[in-house]
Design a protein that fits this description.
The complex is a heterodimer of chains A (206) and B (621). With 206 residues, chain A is an all-alpha fold. Chain A contains seven helices and no strands. Chain A is 65% helix and 0% strand. In chain A, helix 1 runs parallel beside helix 6 and helix 4 runs antiparallel to helix 6. The chains are: A mainly alpha (206), B alpha+beta (621).
Chain lengths: 206, 621
């Protein structure tokens, strides 16, 4: 992907000297990115289905997700008001924020006291792959979009481990999974809005 | 008393239900949130079901609070979405926010809370059905097809990309049971091919957001496909008809040229043809048409049997014949020219016209006399080519050898007459008394005999040919005729055992009977009288026959020992007498008589001696 990104970068830089041809390359890239981002929630839904619905007492609140500090649009109007650069930045920031938790989850999954921890483990690995490929694609995308789009908010992940006892581990695992599911939705939505906004030549596809 | 009791009972029965009703009032039962749905990811609605109402009018209220705050809000709109529903409008809807919703049922006696439900709008999106579904029939080179088009539901904002919808449609014939489903992706148009001509189709469309629930199916759209012949089927029909046509034509052509096709495919295997001598054929002894040899067997002895022709032929090996068929007919080699030349000492067929020297071969039983075909040219018969002339061996009677042998017999073979005229025959020796020195004097005798018979020969015409035509007589009867006559003759002349050659006996040909048998009778027994008379009348003058020239003219030799002198020139008369002697046999004289006579006359007059012995006697020199 890095090779391809450099190659495409050069290629596009040559071609797009005069005319703004972001849309051409962007739309394809955006399409791919949105397809990639689309896969995340699906995988998470499958992974989440293994967990029984927890009582709300035991379940930590979603506001305790470590990415909740990142300000993201809350509704459609807000989302449509966000600039493209911000959108791509948000998407990349969120994606980046989940690299470490995914590592934790993948390491904790095999020892998870759950009957189908094997499936969960494989799902986590799948999520890692998707996340990686999407991140690379977005990197290429921001290279096309300009330097102002390359700002990334760093969101540290402080969760060391999931807990000591079996229950807290399961709960924390499930909680992390749910946080990631929502954030994958956000990423997907942001990219799709970005895609439709960037492809001015084909409005009917959106 | 009774009345009071009844009254109290009545009152109690009336009051108690009312009291009981009042006693049944309870706080409402627990409501339950059934579902919350958002059609556009901008608003959402929640529905609940009521529990028991507790006997009192119960009100339901919905409360919620968002995940980040503890502020509890009540449902802003209970009516838009219908009964027992709460509608959240755009302003109140936040995305990626958990709503904690609770429904409370309240009546006069109390209230009841439902279980709280966490709802994130993003996860509950279920759009409305696609709108404006249109189905049309379009024509294509392959036939008609359906084009289905639709629009996204009005509320779903797909233009901004806020919602991405994917579509699905299903189609079936009206009378069919199973639907045929197709995923259409994000496109808003779909083509359906391979339709049943004349069928009525039903089409329905639904949609789903990328992460959400499927919408309901749209209302069915009906479309009728016009009648048409499927191009594929029509193409196959055309191909089938064309192939059948070609096949018929090929069959017809092959039938017409059946023989040549068979010849081409199954070339005839040439059978083996053996050139030359065919042993089998000869062994069989069956006379083929042109090989048919007609012969007249003359038995000296009744016991004698007819020797098979083939054996004779083989023994002699001296056959002269004209082959009438192709060279590789497989006939006996004796028929071939070359063999004849070999075996017969160079006697060739070319000597047709002349009386060649008959070659005598000493067979087992006796000497043979060979026939030549000399008549073909003389008679001037038309088709000498196909006249088969054969020489046949003559087995002579013991008269020659002087020993009695069972197999002595003479055969006189005659060729069968295919064509007209060819008959040559050899006169059996014993017909005329001959001596053993026959070979040497074969000539004169033969000439004599020839002279006697030459008339017949020369006078041969087709009719006379028939006369002298002796067919092959295989059955003994014919032979017996001969035999008898011969025997008679033999007896008369010499008695059994004596060589008849010693006796001077003459056999005259009386006639040819209807079976083409030459009826001979000894001159001594029957008609000898006249001949004798004639013979006796005339002075016995003899002239030796010197030879026969090429013209079939007897060359007589004068002899000095003529008993009667001065009668030389009477020879003519004699000849004439002789000629007269057999008036019956002479039919159709040819010119040969003339020259003979004249020749003789000349010779006779010129020379002092010489005789013509009309009877082929073996001169005893």
């Amino acid at each position: 992907m890095a090779r391809r990104s450099q190659g495409t970068k050069l290629h596009l830089a040559v071609l797009c000297l005069v005319v703004s041809c972001h849309a051409i390359g962007l739309s394809d890239l955006m399409e791919r990115a949105s397809q990639r981002s689309d896969q995340l929630p699906h995988s998470l839904v499958h992974a989440d289905s293994h967990f029984p619905p927890m009582g709300r007492v035991m379940m930590p609140r979603p506001s305790m997700c470590h990415t909740s500090s990142l300000q993201t649009p809350k509704d459609k109007e807000q989302a449509l008001r966000v600039s493209e650069n911000e959108l791509i930045s948000l998407a990349r920031s969120l994606l980046l924020a989940w690299n470490d938790p995914l590592l934790l989850l993948s390491s904790e999954a095999p020892t998870l006291p759950h009957p189908s921890n094997g499936d969960i483990s494989s799902k986590i690995r799948e999520l890692q792959d998707y996340s990686k490929s999407l991140g690379d694609g977005l990197d290429i995308l921001v290279n096309k979009m300009g330097p102002s789009s390359q700002y990334i908010s760093s969101i540290p992940f402080k969760g060391g481990d999931l807990g000591n006892d079996k229950t807290s581990r399961l709960i924390n695992f499930h909680f992390l999974m749910s946080c990631f599911r929502r954030d994958s939705h956000k990423i997907d939505s942001f990219l799709k809005v970005l895609r439709c906004r960037a492809t001015k030549m084909r409005p009917e596809t959106c | 008393m009774m009345w009071r009791d009844v009254g109290v009972t009545l009152i109690l029965s009336l009051i108690l239900p009312v009291v009981a009703q009042g006693a049944r009032h309870t706080p409402p039962g627990k409501p339950k949130l059934t579902s919350c749905r958002s059609p556009d990811k901008e608003t959402f609605t929640c529905w609940w079901e009521a529990g028991s109402d507790g006997g009192r009018p119960t009100t339901y209220s919905l409360f919620y609070h968002k995940e980040n705050s503890e502020t509890v809000y009540e449902c802003p709109d209970y009516h838009t979405a219908g009964a027992n529903s709460c509608f959240f409008n755009k302003n109140e809807t936040s995305i990626w926010v958990n709503y904690n919703i609770t429904v409370v049922a309240t009546n006069a006696l109390g209230n009841n809370f439902s279980d709280p439900v966490d709802v994130d709008v993003v996860y509950i999106v279920q759009p409305h059905t696609p709108e404006n579904v249109t189905v049309g029939v379009l024509e294509d080179e392959d036939g008609p097809f359906l084009r289905v088009s639709w629009e996204p539901p009005r509320k779903a904002d797909t233009r901004s990309g806020w919602i991405t919808l994917i579509y699905e449609l299903r189609v079936k014939l009206e009378e069919a049971e199973e639907w045929e489903e197709h995923r259409a992706g994000q496109q808003k148009m779909f083509n359906i091919f391979s339709l049943h001509s004349g069928g009525v189709y039903m089409v329905q469309v639904r949609c789903k957001p990328d992460h959400g629930f499927w919408s309901e199916w749209s209302t069915a759209s009906y479309v009728k496909v016009p009648d048409y012949i499927p191009r594929e089927r029509s193409m196959w029909i055309l191909i089938a008809v064309f192939s059948a046509f070609i096949f018929l034509i090929l069959t017809w052509i092959i039938t017409l040229n059946r023989s040549s096709v068979k010849h081409c495919l199954l070339p005839p295997v040439p059978g083996p043809k053996i050139k030359g001598f065919d042993q089998q054929l000869l062994k069989k002894g069956k006379p083929e048409e042109d090989l048919l040899v007609e012969y007249l067997e003359v038995y000296v002895n009744e016991k004698q049997e007819l020797m098979p022709e083939g054996k004779d032929l083989r023994d002699v090996g001296c056959l002269k014949s004209k082959s009438q068929s192709d060279n590789d007919s497989g006939r006996g080699s004796c028929d071939s020219h070359t063999l004849l030349m070999e075996k017969c000492g160079g006697v060739e067929s070319k000597d047709e016209s002349s009386y060649e020297e008959p070659e005598l071969l000493q067979g087992q039983a006796g000497s043979w006399e060979r026939l030549e075909r000399g008549d073909s040219q003389v008679v001037d018969t038309p088709d000498s080519s196909d006249a088969r002339v054969k020489t046949w061996p003559l087995v002579f009677s013991p008269s020659i050898h002087g020993s009695s042998d069972n197999h002595h017999y003479g055969t006189l073979e005659m060729p069968k007459q295919h064509s007209t005229s060819e008959i040559t025959y050899s006169v059996p020796d014993h017909l005329f008394p001959t001596s053993t020195s026959f070979p040497h004097h074969h000539h004169p005798e033969y000439r004599d005999s020839l002279g006697e018979y030459s008339e017949y020969r020369h006078s041969r015409s087709p009719s006379t040919g028939v006369l002298y035509h002796w067919e092959a007589q295989h059955h003994p009867q014919a032979h017996s005729n001969f035999n008898i006559r011969n025997l008679e003759r033999q007896k008369e002349a010499t008695g059994l055992g004596l060589p008849p050659s010693r006796s001077m006996e003459y056999v005259e040909v009386q006639k040819v009977n209807q079976e083409n048998q030459l009826v001979l009778k000894p001159l001594s027994s029957h008609g000898r009288g006249p001949s004798q008379v004639q013979f006796g009348r005339a002075v016995v003058d003899y002239s030796k026959v010197n030879g026969v020239n090429n013209d079939n003219v007897l060359l007589l030799q004068r002899q000095r020992e003529m008993a009667e002198a001065g009668q030389y020139c009477d020879y003519r008369e004699k000849e004439g007498a002789e000629a007269e002697r057999y008036p019956t046999q002479q039919q159709g004289k040819t010119t040969k008589d003339g020259p003979v006579a004249t020749q003789l006359q000349e010779s006779t007059c010129l020379t002092t001696s010489g005789y013509v012995d009309t009877v082929p006697t073996m001169p005893t020199f």
